[in-house]
Protein backbone atom coordinates (compact mmCIF):
# COMPACT_ATOMS: atom_id res chain seq x y z
CA UNK A 1 0.00 0.00 0.00
CA UNK A 2 1.28 3.44 -0.89
CA UNK A 3 2.55 5.24 2.24
CA UNK A 4 0.22 8.17 1.52
CA UNK A 5 -2.85 5.90 1.50
CA UNK A 6 -1.62 4.13 4.60
CA UNK A 7 -1.36 7.49 6.37
CA UNK A 8 -4.85 8.46 5.23
CA UNK A 9 -6.27 5.17 6.44
CA UNK A 10 -4.70 5.65 9.86
CA UNK A 11 -6.04 9.19 10.04
CA UNK A 12 -9.57 8.05 9.21
CA UNK A 13 -9.39 5.31 11.82
CA UNK A 14 -8.26 7.85 14.41
CA UNK A 15 -11.11 10.21 13.56
CA UNK A 16 -13.61 7.35 13.74
CA UNK A 17 -12.26 6.35 17.14
CA UNK A 18 -12.51 9.90 18.40
CA UNK A 19 -16.02 10.10 17.08
CA UNK A 20 -17.06 7.03 19.03
CA UNK A 21 -15.56 8.28 22.27
CA UNK A 22 -16.81 11.85 21.96
CA UNK A 23 -20.20 10.63 20.80
CA UNK A 24 -20.80 8.79 24.09
CA UNK A 25 -22.97 11.65 25.36
CA UNK A 26 -24.92 10.97 28.53
CA UNK A 27 -28.65 10.45 28.03
CA UNK A 28 -30.78 13.40 29.14
CA UNK A 29 -34.02 12.82 31.06
CA UNK A 30 -36.68 15.54 31.25
CA UNK A 31 -37.66 16.01 34.88
CA UNK A 32 -41.01 17.48 35.93
CA UNK A 33 -40.99 19.65 39.07
CA UNK A 34 -43.44 22.16 40.50
CA UNK A 35 -42.89 25.88 41.11
CA UNK A 36 -44.83 25.93 44.39
CA UNK A 37 -43.37 23.20 46.64
CA UNK A 38 -40.68 25.10 48.55
CA UNK A 39 -38.29 23.77 49.84
CA UNK A 40 -38.68 20.62 47.73
CA UNK A 41 -39.25 22.40 44.41
CA UNK A 42 -39.90 26.08 43.68
CA UNK A 43 -39.29 28.82 41.16
CA UNK A 44 -36.25 30.91 42.08
CA UNK A 45 -37.12 34.39 40.83
CA UNK A 46 -33.50 35.50 40.58
CA UNK A 47 -32.38 32.71 38.28
CA UNK A 48 -35.84 31.99 36.84
CA UNK A 49 -35.16 28.29 37.34
CA UNK A 50 -36.69 25.54 39.45
CA UNK A 51 -34.67 24.95 42.62
CA UNK A 52 -35.09 22.93 45.81
CA UNK A 53 -34.21 19.78 47.69
CA UNK A 54 -35.74 17.38 45.15
CA UNK A 55 -34.06 19.24 42.28
CA UNK A 56 -30.69 18.87 44.00
CA UNK A 57 -31.48 15.21 44.67
CA UNK A 58 -32.42 14.54 41.03
CA UNK A 59 -29.24 16.20 39.81
CA UNK A 60 -27.10 14.22 42.27
CA UNK A 61 -28.83 10.95 41.31
CA UNK A 62 -28.26 11.73 37.64
CA UNK A 63 -24.56 12.36 38.20
CA UNK A 64 -24.19 9.13 40.17
CA UNK A 65 -26.33 7.18 37.69
CA UNK A 66 -24.52 8.36 34.58
CA UNK A 67 -27.19 10.49 32.95
CA UNK A 68 -28.19 14.16 32.62
CA UNK A 69 -31.41 15.90 33.71
CA UNK A 70 -33.31 18.83 32.31
CA UNK A 71 -35.78 20.26 34.85
CA UNK A 72 -39.12 21.48 33.52
CA UNK A 73 -41.76 23.46 35.42
CA UNK A 74 -44.99 21.47 35.69
CA UNK A 75 -48.08 21.99 37.86
CA UNK A 76 -48.56 19.34 40.53
CA UNK A 77 -51.79 17.95 39.09
CA UNK A 78 -50.18 17.63 35.64
CA UNK A 79 -47.07 15.72 36.77
CA UNK A 80 -48.36 12.16 36.33
CA UNK A 81 -50.30 12.91 33.10
CA UNK A 82 -47.16 14.54 31.67
CA UNK A 83 -45.10 11.49 32.61
CA UNK A 84 -47.50 8.95 31.11
CA UNK A 85 -47.84 11.08 27.96
CA UNK A 86 -44.01 11.07 27.65
CA UNK A 87 -43.75 14.85 27.88
CA UNK A 88 -41.33 14.26 30.77
CA UNK A 89 -39.26 11.21 31.77
CA UNK A 90 -39.08 11.58 35.56
CA UNK A 91 -40.97 13.30 38.35
CA UNK A 92 -38.98 14.87 41.18
CA UNK A 93 -41.41 16.57 43.56
CA UNK A 94 -43.10 16.23 46.95
CA UNK A 95 -45.42 13.51 45.64
CA UNK A 96 -45.92 10.82 48.25
CA UNK A 97 -46.05 7.16 47.27
CA UNK A 98 -49.60 5.73 47.32
CA UNK A 99 -51.12 2.43 46.11
CA UNK A 100 -53.36 4.34 43.68
CA UNK A 101 -50.41 6.15 42.11
CA UNK A 102 -48.37 2.96 41.94
CA UNK A 103 -51.00 1.51 39.62
CA UNK A 104 -50.04 4.18 37.08
CA UNK A 105 -46.34 4.93 37.69
CA UNK A 106 -43.22 3.39 39.27
CA UNK A 107 -41.63 4.82 42.41
CA UNK A 108 -37.92 4.65 43.10
CA UNK A 109 -36.37 3.80 46.43
CA UNK A 110 -37.22 6.49 49.05
CA UNK A 111 -35.38 9.79 49.05
CA UNK A 112 -37.19 11.41 52.02
CA UNK A 113 -40.18 10.60 54.28
CA UNK A 114 -42.77 12.81 56.04
CA UNK A 115 -46.48 13.36 56.75
CA UNK A 116 -49.03 16.15 56.53
CA UNK A 117 -49.15 19.29 58.66
CA UNK A 118 -52.15 21.29 59.82
CA UNK A 119 -52.47 25.08 59.59
CA UNK A 120 -55.15 27.33 61.08
CA UNK A 121 -55.53 31.09 61.46
CA UNK A 122 -53.05 32.69 63.85
CA UNK A 123 -55.92 33.86 66.09
CA UNK A 124 -57.33 30.32 66.34
CA UNK A 125 -56.12 29.03 69.70
CA UNK A 126 -57.79 25.66 69.38
CA UNK A 127 -55.95 22.42 70.08
CA UNK A 128 -56.10 19.98 67.18
CA UNK A 129 -54.31 16.66 67.24
CA UNK A 130 -56.31 14.72 64.62
CA UNK A 131 -58.12 15.37 61.35
CA UNK A 132 -61.35 14.37 63.08
CA UNK A 133 -61.03 17.32 65.49
CA UNK A 134 -62.17 19.52 62.58
CA UNK A 135 -65.28 17.51 61.70
CA UNK A 136 -68.10 19.70 60.40
CA UNK A 137 -65.75 22.50 59.31
CA UNK A 138 -64.73 23.81 55.89
CA UNK A 139 -61.17 22.65 55.23
CA UNK A 140 -58.78 22.70 52.28
CA UNK A 141 -55.79 21.00 50.66
CA UNK A 142 -53.86 21.12 47.41
CA UNK A 143 -55.44 19.51 44.36
CA UNK A 144 -53.79 16.24 43.37
CA UNK A 145 -52.35 15.47 46.81
CA UNK A 146 -53.04 12.44 48.98
CA UNK A 147 -54.23 14.85 51.68
CA UNK A 148 -57.26 16.09 49.76
CA UNK A 149 -58.09 12.48 48.89
CA UNK A 150 -58.02 11.56 52.58
CA UNK A 151 -60.19 14.54 53.57
CA UNK A 152 -62.81 13.63 50.97
CA UNK A 153 -62.72 9.95 51.90
CA UNK A 154 -63.49 10.65 55.56
CA UNK A 155 -66.74 12.45 54.79
CA UNK A 156 -66.60 14.35 58.09
CA UNK A 157 -66.29 17.88 56.84
CA UNK A 158 -68.87 20.45 55.80
CA UNK A 159 -66.81 21.11 52.67
CA UNK A 160 -63.38 20.19 51.31
CA UNK A 161 -61.91 22.84 49.01
CA UNK A 162 -59.10 22.19 46.56
CA UNK A 163 -56.32 24.65 45.76
CA UNK A 164 -53.76 24.80 42.98
CA UNK A 165 -50.99 25.78 45.40
CA UNK A 166 -50.22 25.99 49.11
CA UNK A 167 -49.95 29.77 48.73
CA UNK A 168 -53.59 29.87 47.55
CA UNK A 169 -54.57 27.63 50.47
CA UNK A 170 -52.86 29.93 52.97
CA UNK A 171 -54.47 33.00 51.42
CA UNK A 172 -58.00 31.64 51.82
CA UNK A 173 -57.21 30.47 55.33
CA UNK A 174 -55.92 33.91 56.33
CA UNK A 175 -59.10 35.48 54.91
CA UNK A 176 -61.25 33.13 56.99
CA UNK A 177 -62.79 31.33 54.03
CA UNK A 178 -61.78 27.95 55.44
CA UNK A 179 -61.25 26.76 59.01
CA UNK A 180 -58.04 24.80 58.40
CA UNK A 181 -55.67 23.58 55.74
CA UNK A 182 -53.64 20.40 55.30
CA UNK A 183 -50.38 20.20 53.34
CA UNK A 184 -46.87 18.74 53.35
CA UNK A 185 -45.44 19.36 56.82
CA UNK A 186 -41.87 20.20 55.69
CA UNK A 187 -43.20 22.75 53.18
CA UNK A 188 -45.42 24.39 55.79
CA UNK A 189 -42.63 24.42 58.40
CA UNK A 190 -40.19 25.95 55.94
CA UNK A 191 -42.63 28.71 54.98
CA UNK A 192 -43.47 29.45 58.61
CA UNK A 193 -39.75 29.76 59.37
CA UNK A 194 -39.40 32.52 56.77
CA UNK A 195 -41.55 34.81 58.93
CA UNK A 196 -43.80 35.91 56.07
CA UNK A 197 -46.94 34.04 57.16
CA UNK A 198 -48.05 35.89 60.30
CA UNK A 199 -51.80 35.36 59.75
CA UNK A 200 -51.66 31.56 59.95
CA UNK A 201 -49.94 29.11 62.27
CA UNK A 202 -48.67 25.56 62.02
CA UNK A 203 -50.41 23.50 64.70
CA UNK A 204 -47.91 21.91 67.06
CA UNK A 205 -48.92 18.54 68.46
CA UNK A 206 -50.96 17.55 65.41
CA UNK A 207 -50.37 13.88 64.59
CA UNK A 208 -50.21 13.19 60.83
CA UNK A 209 -52.54 10.57 59.42
CA UNK A 210 -50.56 9.95 56.24
CA UNK A 211 -46.86 9.19 56.42
CA UNK A 212 -45.18 8.55 53.12
CA UNK A 213 -42.05 8.41 51.04
CA UNK A 214 -40.89 10.99 48.53
CA UNK A 215 -39.19 9.26 45.61
CA UNK A 216 -38.24 9.82 42.01
CA UNK A 217 -41.01 8.57 39.74
CA UNK A 218 -40.68 6.89 36.35
CA UNK A 219 -43.08 5.45 33.79
CA UNK A 220 -44.42 1.94 34.07
CA UNK A 221 -42.63 -0.58 31.90
CA UNK A 222 -39.21 1.08 32.06
CA UNK A 223 -37.22 -1.18 34.42
CA UNK A 224 -33.85 -0.03 33.07
CA UNK A 225 -34.62 3.60 33.90
CA UNK A 226 -35.81 2.62 37.38
CA UNK A 227 -32.65 0.57 37.94
CA UNK A 228 -30.42 3.49 36.93
CA UNK A 229 -32.32 5.85 39.22
CA UNK A 230 -32.16 3.44 42.16
CA UNK A 231 -28.45 2.90 41.58
CA UNK A 232 -27.95 6.66 41.75
CA UNK A 233 -30.03 6.96 44.93
CA UNK A 234 -28.03 4.17 46.59
CA UNK A 235 -24.82 5.95 45.67
CA UNK A 236 -25.80 9.36 47.08
CA UNK A 237 -27.03 7.70 50.27
CA UNK A 238 -23.78 5.78 50.66
CA UNK A 239 -21.41 8.70 50.11
CA UNK A 240 -23.34 11.22 52.25
CA UNK A 241 -24.47 13.43 49.37
CA UNK A 242 -28.16 13.00 50.22
CA UNK A 243 -27.59 13.86 53.88
CA UNK A 244 -25.83 17.04 52.76
CA UNK A 245 -28.76 17.99 50.51
CA UNK A 246 -31.27 17.41 53.33
CA UNK A 247 -29.18 19.54 55.70
CA UNK A 248 -28.82 22.29 53.09
CA UNK A 249 -32.61 22.65 52.92
CA UNK A 250 -33.04 22.33 56.72
CA UNK A 251 -35.23 19.24 56.48
CA UNK A 252 -33.41 17.17 59.10
Describe this structure in words.
The protein has 252 residues and is of the alpha/beta class. 37% of the residues lie in helices and 27% in strands. It has 9 helices and 13 strands. Strands 1, 5, 6, 7, 8, 9, 10, 11, 12 and 13 form a 10-stranded mixed beta sheet that branches. Strands 2-3-4 form a 3-stranded antiparallel beta sheet. A hairpin with a 4-residue loop joins strand 3 (41-44) and strand 4 (49-51). The N and C termini lie far apart (70 Å). The model is unreliable at 10-23 (pLDDT under 50).
Element layout with pairings:
Elements: H1 3-22, E1 28-33, E2 36-37, E3 41-44, E4 49-51, H2 53-65, E5 68-73, H3 79-84, E6 90-96, H4 99-102, E7 105-107, E8 112-121, E9 138-142, H5 146-154, E10 159-163, H6 166-174, E11 180-184, H7 185-193, E12 200-202, E13 211-219, H8 223-238, H9 241-248
Parallel strand pairs: 1-5, 1-6, 9-10, 9-11
Antiparallel strand pairs: 2-3, 3-4, 6-13, 7-13, 8-11, 8-12, 8-13
Helix pairs in contact: 2-8, 2-9
Classify the beta-strand content into a percent band.
Answer: 25-35%
Major sheet attributes = 10 strands, mixed
The ordered H/E elements are HEEEEHEHEHEEEHEHEHEEHH
Structural class: alpha/beta
Count helical runs.
Answer: 9
* Mean residue pLDDT: 90
Radius of gyration: 23 Å
Shape: globular
Alpha carbon gap, first and last residue: 70 Å
Helix content: 25-40%
Number of β-strand runs: 13
Summary tags:
252 residues; alpha/beta; 10-stranded mixed beta sheet; 3-stranded antiparallel beta sheet; 9 helices; 13 strands; 37% helix
Amino acid sequence: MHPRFRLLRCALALVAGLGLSSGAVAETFKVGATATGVPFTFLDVKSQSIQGMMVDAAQAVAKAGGFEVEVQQTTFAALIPSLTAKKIDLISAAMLRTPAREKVVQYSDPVFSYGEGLIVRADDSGTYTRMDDLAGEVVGAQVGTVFIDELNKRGLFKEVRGYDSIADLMRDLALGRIKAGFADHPILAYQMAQGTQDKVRLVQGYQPVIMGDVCLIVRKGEPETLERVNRGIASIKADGTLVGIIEKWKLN
